[in-house]
Amino acid sequence: MKTLAIRLEEEQHAQLSVIAQLEELTVTDAIRQAIEHWVSERRNNPELQARAEAVLEDIEREATTRRGAIAALLSGESRGSESGKSPTAAKSTGRSPRRGRSG
């Protein structure tokens, strides 16, 4: 469950409180019902559905790109390297890595 704080004008809060009391609800329950109603109405809006589908396609495309990048990292492949060698292998000098100086 998430907590949400909102600011209301005094008059709006007074009306909300009176209506909730007359409906035998807490202000919190009245707000929850209003949000459920608002979300339900928008959920059935064809324009919103189309925008949601477009966003989902963007998410899927991005996820596919990222999966490919991670798979390449895990397999040691480098798609941008010359002659299929990894960047590390292409830069290798044949010498062992330097170790810290002891002194």
The average pLDDT score comes to 83
Number of strands: 0
Ranges where pLDDT stays below 50 over 5 or more residues in a row are 82-103
* Helix count, DSSP H or I runs of 4 or more residues: 4
Radius of gyration over alpha carbons?
29 Å
State the end-to-end CA separation. Answer: 58 Å
Beta-strand portion reads under 5%
Describe the structure.
With 103 residues, the protein is mainly α. The chain has a domain at 10-72. 63% of the residues lie in helices and 0% in strands. The protein has four helices and no strands. It has helices spanning 10-22, 27-43, 46-75, 87-91. The longest helix has 30 residues, at 46-75. The chain is elongated and about 65 Å long. The N and C termini lie far apart (58 Å). Mean pLDDT is 83; it is low at 82-103.
